[in-house]
## 1
Amino acid sequence: MPANRKLRRTSEQRNALLKNQVSNLFWHGRIQTTYPKAKEVQKVAEKLLTAAIRTYSDVVTVTKDKYNAKGEIVKVEYKNDGVRKLAVRRKLMANLNDLQPVRAEGQRRSEFKAQTKDINHPIIEKIFNELAPKFDKRADDLGQGGGYTRVIKLGPRNGDNAEMAIIEFVI
């Protein structure tokens, strides 16, 4: 059996497809696709999420001297990513598309800008700040790691009879 399914696409098309679908899975929490694509997305997503879970707490506190408005030197503490977390962050950025948040209906533009002002890569921040701690807690409670996604078969699609499936996070 080959290491991955070819999905009747060239390697560039296949990699782009998986990158898009894994990004949408992380962003929305569930997607509907064909069963073979869902199995491939599951492989990639679980590997990326496992790497994020192992390193999400690797944070280094750095103290720097800054000048305040009065011209006095003040010590300011910053939290930076540790070496391992930075490497995983770069890996995630290479393997995921950078999806941007969409303003909700009825939300003011100023509120939306204030909410998204300091976030450069929202999908990466969502993985490290929401998903990784949630699944790490789940792994501690159950005593096992992995199994972060599930694939549910839906049956054949009308038109071409392709087996459809939903892939979603198990939370």
## 2
Amino acid sequence: MNAKKLNNYPKEYFDFIRKYDLKKNSLVHHLANEKYSWSIGTKFRKELGMYAELHHILPIFDGGKKETSNFVILTPHHHLIAHLILAEKLGGRHWHAAKAVTEGNIEVNSYRNEDTSYQTLVKSYENRIKQKININKEKKYVTPNRYSNLIGGGSLHHIRNLDT
């Protein structure tokens, strides 16, 4: 993993993913050091008896690798919160990553739709995510002073109450 990049990531992100990482669950402890592969998520889901998702600690777009040390296992709800923490603190492409977690694909959406806490979080954040992505697209056309007025004050107080 790229330790230099990770130094720029917020402490609350690491605290959060450590707290909710399902790799610590005794049912899957034997898989914790399993080599990263496309099937690893399936193995964790089978052993846990629930739907869970791989989350790259350092996203691929930011230099993260597809390796065992760079992923945790999270519920869809916690997966989205992890991306929202990064998006709120670091902005930019992290908003696109959060959007990707809200959209998913046919395969994962059938599981995510069963998670009411995930659905509630998506509904409460989808407009903010779209707004931030649109601001990032317009950024090159806006002067720095005007841009700072468009952003507004974002904070994580919206998320903190939803991390259960």
## 3
Amino acid sequence: MSIMCGWAQRFVGPELVVGASRQNVRRKMKSWIENKHLALWRGPCSTHRQARELISGPELAMGARLLSFNRTQTRVVTGLLTGHNTLRRHLVIMGLCNDPMCRKYGTEEETSVHILCECEALAPLRHAYMGSFFLDSQDIGELSMGAIWNFAKGTKLLQPSTEYGAQRACH
């Protein structure tokens, strides 16, 4: 019997038969998972307000770039992009600090968006590492992770240890 006629034969065996290749099934599953993830990210019930402001959505390339960093670099850049860091606004939310105002300029709350895009006191440093004195939150996605890391390191606002960073941020 030829191989071409195999499809016409009735299958006999212990397992179910699916008329699709494994590769096609994996591709469809991956696409479905990515679409669901993106829908959750952009959905009205998403609570990641600050992260969504700086990150356009799930991106494998960003994850790959972060994997090339050491642990401290990854923690600092991820914290800065998601808002989970030792900046004062987040520390106030966690109950570790009373004053959310920027340590450098003092007129706005110290958030990731403020530090990365708006703080006038950090404008020269922002220009040196990111190429512009002031940025829009959409511009952050175009920057290299290295530029964000170097800027964060230059600000001296984000400390490797959360306890030390929290103590230093509130005094």
